[in-house]
Amino acid sequence: MTMQEYLEEIEHAASETLRLVWSEHQQLEDFQAHLALLRAQIEDSQRRIDWLNENPEFDDDSQATYMTHESYFGPEKELYYRVKLWPNFRPCWMCGSSRRML
After folding, report:
1. DSSP letter at 70?
2. Taking 90 as the threshold, does the pLDDT of residue 77 lie above it?
3. Which end of the chain is more exposed for a tag (fewer CB within 10 A), N or C?
4. CA gap 73, 69 in Å, rounded
């Protein structure tokens, strides 16, 4: 077998492997970007709540309480369940699928 024949034989396997690797890399980057966005939302909400707690004269109708619940049932809950999924984040070649559920 010549080098040219060998390269022709493995071309499909190599190109598919690289495609999967880059696809998984992109999915991981998207996952991490989404986590960063959720963390930024939580931090912003916490800053606003802290400010309202320090300045109760501006807290009309218990806005701090509302914001606490809004943050808890919004980005904090989503972040919790996304991070909980992290141990199940498996490469698609391990599960026999070209897609991964997140």
Report:
1. H
2. yes
3. N
4. 6
In terms of Cα–Cα distance, which of 45, 48, 42 is closest to 82? 42
Contact 35, 83 (CB under 8 A): yes
Mean of all residue pLDDT scores within the chain = 83
What is the number of other CB atoms lying within 10 angstroms of the CB of residue 30?
A: 11
Amino acid at 40: A
Q: Give the pLDDT score at 16.
A: 87
Question: Among candidates 79, 10, 92, which has minimal Cα distance to 39?
Answer: 79
pLDDT of residue 15 exceeding 70:
yes
Pairwise CA distance, residues 7 & 40, whole Å: 48
98 secondary structure, DSSP code: S
